[in-house]
């Protein structure tokens, strides 16, 4: 059983028969001490159970290298590629990154945020809705809060994202420029999905005076979703000539269904995805999709955290990292 | 900015103008106090920044409801469905669950384990390799360690999984019973993937006296993997009649490639996946796959944690949750 008090740096120094300064030096730069000494310190750390460098003293100094990322669902999730880029970038910058899964549950989201604050996380990265009470609570803390994947007017602290309404609008322009006349929009009913849908519908109706047919996805994403939505499309009076699918996996699923029922993609029915995940370039036909710049989001966040560490003021509270429509074979 | 000392239960009691005993009662069972009092306490918790019930006092009591799950990669990952079942089960049991992503990096895996121990996690759930030193370190702690997805001979603490060698063996028997004669095995080069491969090869060669052709996947999973492996298969002197694919997404990718090159699945080339993820029953043709019982793994782990909480001794240190081959259209 572990002891109930945390071992200290001097416990390690004692066990390794070196000075506390040497142990300190080892933690900030292992190469700065002799190899044999380094190995002795490493052994002492393991023997004593001393918490390694970054986390040590986090409660005392109110700082840690812990970063907590909260997402609604693991997979299939639109966020996964952004989160992967973030985990990779922040981990290589020395952060201890953990991912919390909220399951679209507000109370659960709140509990994970409170846990991160209790552990004095350096940063919380959120993708879901945050209640006014919890927003206030986060603002009182010294934890950096970064909302990603949207451009809120009143961010809790900092936001790094892009305009979903603009994505919808650009998709409508793209679809029109390709000569399609009967789009079908598959709406992801989250707040961001609704914005994309509204951007698309407004632009399409203004530009063409025509209507759009629609299907609603379910959250959390359910098995069989693509089959169900394709069946819905098949039941329409007139078949759409292009389907805007939300996530690429939904686009992939619709292509599989379309081909199974003898339709050619894009000749009989075109398909557009969202997220530009690996599957978009791997599917046959390859999938036209919306690319959001995961790397840029990750780099922007790493830079913000670094600047905060240095005590610099963050002037730009809402960072727009943009998006791109990538045209491929499917539309 | 937050104060550097954690607010206490009595801070909350003072702010809510109730006794500490009432606050305590509220945390163990909110319904046991009057609605108005409960609301006052909730407000006081938010005002003071008191850490909610489960985490409170975790450092003092050496216990928390924090569960840390470590996986090598978010998506595409073989583990995702097991992790989702676990997150859901443990969250509804009142745990604060976080997922750490190790990126197949031993040092990073170690840092995440140490962080979980430093935060006095109730449990660490690991899928990757753990060095002897870190094993010793975990054993000295009061944290429950659960290795999942394998049946190690000498578990760190407790293991919940199944036999990958047996899966390989059963797949060989299945393939033979279906009359296939030229299997191609796509090996996932992780320790578990190697065991499945060895089980398959030993059983196949013993049973038939024949050879097996092979491809090696890369870890972490790379975009374009299915295309590359299908191209490898196309270059073989004789085309295999069945391909054992590892993850279902690889099976899906191979089916897409095969159909693109005019081959019929399963008539010209049969395909078998692993993991029985949603895609297996959604693909056209549906994919024959190996089902591992995610729900049973999650329930077993929840029960183990509950029993430890109650102070019961865990007699069964290695729990075999088994597997099933699900025959569908693709083989």
From TrEMBL, chains A, B:
Domain of life: Bacteria
Cross-referenced Pfam families: LacI (PF00356), Peripla_BP_3 (PF13377)
Keyword line: DNA-binding, Transcription, Transcription regulation
InterPro entries: HTH_LacI, LacI/GalR-like_sensor, Lambda_DNA-bd_dom_sf, Peripla_BP_I
Residue span, HTH lacI-type domain: 7-61
Any one Gene Ontology molecular-function term assigned to this protein's record: transcription cis-regulatory region binding
Regions annotated as coiled coil: none
PROSITE patterns: HTH_LACI_2
UniProt protein name: LacI family DNA-binding transcriptional regulator
Organism: Parahaliea maris
């Amino acid at each position: 059983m572990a002891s109930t008090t945390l071992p200290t740096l001097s416990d390690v120094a004692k066990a390794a028969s070196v000075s506390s300064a040497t142990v300190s030096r080892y933690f900030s730069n292992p190469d700065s001490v002799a190899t044999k000494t380094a190995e002795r310190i490493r052994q002492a750390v393991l023997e004593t159970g001393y918490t390694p460098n970054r986390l040590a003293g986090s409660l005392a100094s109110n700082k840690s290298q812990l970063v907590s990322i909260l997402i609604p669902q693991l997979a299939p999730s639109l966020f996964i590629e952004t989160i992967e880029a973030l985990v990779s970038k922040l981990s290589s910058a020395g952060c201890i990154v953990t991912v919390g899964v909220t399951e679209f549950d507000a109370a659960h989201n709140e509990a994970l945020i409170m846990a991160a604050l209790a552990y004095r996380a350096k940063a919380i990265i959120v993708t879901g809705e945050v209640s006014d009470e919890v927003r206030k609570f986060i603002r009182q803390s010294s934890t950096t809060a970064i909302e990603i994947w949207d451009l809120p007017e009143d961010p809790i602290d900092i936001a790094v994202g892009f305009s979903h309404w603009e994505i919808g609008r650009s998709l409508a322009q793209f679809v029109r420029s390709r000569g399609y006349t009967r789009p079908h929009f598959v709406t992801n009913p989250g707040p961001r999905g609704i914005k994309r849908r509204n951007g698309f519908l407004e632009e399409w109706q203004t530009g063409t005076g025509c209507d759009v047919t629609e299907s609603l996805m379910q959250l959390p994403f359910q098995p069989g979703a693509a089959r169900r939505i394709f069946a819905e499309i098949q039941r329409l009076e007139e078949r759409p000539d292009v389907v805007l699918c939300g996530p690429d996996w939904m686009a992939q699923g619709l292509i599989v269904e379309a081909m199974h029922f003898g339709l050619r993609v894009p000749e009989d029915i075109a398909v557009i995805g969202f997220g530009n995940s690996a599957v978009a370039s791997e599917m046959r036909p390859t999938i036209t999709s919306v690319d959001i710049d995961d790397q840029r989001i990750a780099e922007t966040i790493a830079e913000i955290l670094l600047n905060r560490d240095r005590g610099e003021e963050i002037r730009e509270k809402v960072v727009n990292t943009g998006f791109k429509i990538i045209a491929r074979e499917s539309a």
